[in-house]
Amino acid sequence: MRIILLGAPGAGKGTQAQFIMQKYGIPQISTGDMLRAAVKAQTSLGLQAKELMDKGQLVTDDLVIALVKERISQPDCKNGFLLDGFPRTVPQADAMKASGIKVDYVLEFDVPDEVIVDRMSGRRIHQTSGRVYHVKYNPPKNEGIDDITGEPLTIRKDDHEDIVKKRLVEYHQLTKPLINYYQNEKKAGNTEYFRIDGTQPVEKVTHELEKILG
Ligand code: AP5
């Protein structure tokens, strides 16, 4: 099962990725998490990515494509994978297609910009695992603490309102064209494509995914 999660920043991709990963036993490949890990480790990739990420801009296609290709070649991806945050531009999608990487499902989470800005202000993350919470809509069992490890939760640097608005501009300009791209792929019989109302509560979105993926 090879799946792409498509949607604006904060649309709920990471939240639902946790469910899909556990239920279907495929690894989550989150380019955002991989880039944040590179920034933390201060690798040369991390140093290049940091400046762009802090400004709410996308990292260059070449860097991200190389990162994903390397990750997909790992043995744990041989039965499938879940791409969360990739592809994010048409050149990224083209590069994947040119490498012969087939996609079974493209799942689009549809959420309006106003809802996104509200959601981001309440997001809390567990940095090591990438687990995502929301203070109101998806709270941890104990405030500020990760459910599994008991470690403290943090706020992402790029979740401040002004940066979120910049990320939304990038989304509309560079990522939204992928909706048409993959709808055409569906017409050509190359993938399944589903649009999900991402404004529903977390459990309802999960239930809808379960119905689609079986
Ligand atoms: P990345 O980490 O991928 O961020 P993003 O796409 O902007 O997505 P988010 O993680 O912000 O949101 P999400 O959809 O996963 O939402 P979540 O589930 O957390 O990328 C960060 C940066 O890295 C980019 O800006 C870019 O610079 C770079 N980058 C990454 N990939 C790249 C690429 N391919 N090319 C170039 N650059 C790249 O949910 C958000 C909040 O809402 C949470 O608090 C959650 O609890 C809550 N929530 C979720 N679902 C619901 C619901 N149904 N109802 C209510 N609340 C909900």
Core attributes:
single chain, 214 residues, alpha/beta, Rossmann fold, two-stranded antiparallel sheet, 7 strands, binds BIS(adenosine)-5'-pentaphosphate
From the N-terminal CA to the C-terminal CA, the straight-line distance is 11 Å
Main sheet overview: 5 strands, parallel
Q: Considering DSSP H and I runs of 4 or more, what fraction of the residues is helical?
A: 40-55%
Mean residue pLDDT: 94
CATH class (first level) name of the domain at 2-110 and 175-213:
Alpha Beta
CATH superfamily of the domain at 2-110 and 175-213: P-loop containing nucleotide triphosphate hydrolases
> Strand order within the widest sheet?
2-3-1-4-7
Instruction: Write the CATH architecture name of the domain at 2-110 and 175-213.
Output: 3-Layer(aba) Sandwich
Give the ordered list of helices and strands.
EHEHHHEHEHEEHHEH
Say which molecules are bound, naming each kind only once. BIS(adenosine)-5'-pentaphosphate
CATH topology of the domain at 2-110 and 175-213: Rossmann fold
Poorly predicted ranges = none
Beta strands, count:
7
How many alpha or pi helices? 9
